[in-house]
């Protein structure tokens, strides 16, 4: 994850779009703005005026980017995982009947 360790915003955006976390630059920018608003909303003693740069944003941004990337990768892997899990259950059912596998949504 060079884009993460190097804090490369352009490559991070690309990784998030490829992974399906965001559909457009507008959605990515809106999400970043929401992060900035969350920082201010969580700090009653916030001295940063609305619309101004918050120096805490980069650390929050990179942590949240990583979470978005992980969630998008989990969504991409889920169908393959469920297929493998179902095949394991099917094989087990050849010896012991009644085993069921039910898919569940990813947590996030």
Model description:
The chain is mainly α and 108 residues long. The chain has helices at residues 2-5, 9-19, 25-41, 57-93. The radius of gyration is 20 Å and the shape is elongated. The model has no long low-confidence stretch (mean pLDDT 89).
Briefly characterize the structure.
It is built from four helices and no strands. It has helices spanning 2-5, 9-19, 25-41, 57-93.
N-to-C series of helices and strands: HHHH
Q: What is the overall shape? A: elongated
Coarse structural class = mainly alpha
Q: DSSP helix count?
A: 4
Radius of gyration: 20 Å
Major beta-sheet overview: none
Count of individual beta strands: 0
Query: Any low-confidence stretches, pLDDT <50, length ≥5?
Result: none
Head-to-tail CA distance between termini? 21 Å
The averaged pLDDT comes out at: 89
List the helices and strands and how they pair.
Elements: H1 2-5, H2 9-19, H3 25-41, H4 57-93
């Amino acid at each position: 994850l060079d884009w993460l360790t190097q804090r490369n915003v352009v490559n991070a955006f690309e990784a998030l779009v490829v992974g399906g976390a965001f559909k457009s630059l507008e959605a990515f920018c809106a999400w970043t703005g929401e992060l900035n608003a969350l920082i201010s909303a969580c700090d009653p003693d916030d001295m940063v005026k609305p619309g101004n740069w918050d120096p805490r944003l980069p650390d929050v941004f990179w942590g949240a980017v990583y979470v978005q990337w992980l969630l998008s990768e989990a969504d991409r892997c889920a169908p393959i995982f469920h297929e493998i899990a179902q095949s394991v259950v099917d094989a087990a059912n050849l010896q012991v009947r009644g085993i069921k596998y039910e898919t569940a949504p990813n947590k996030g």
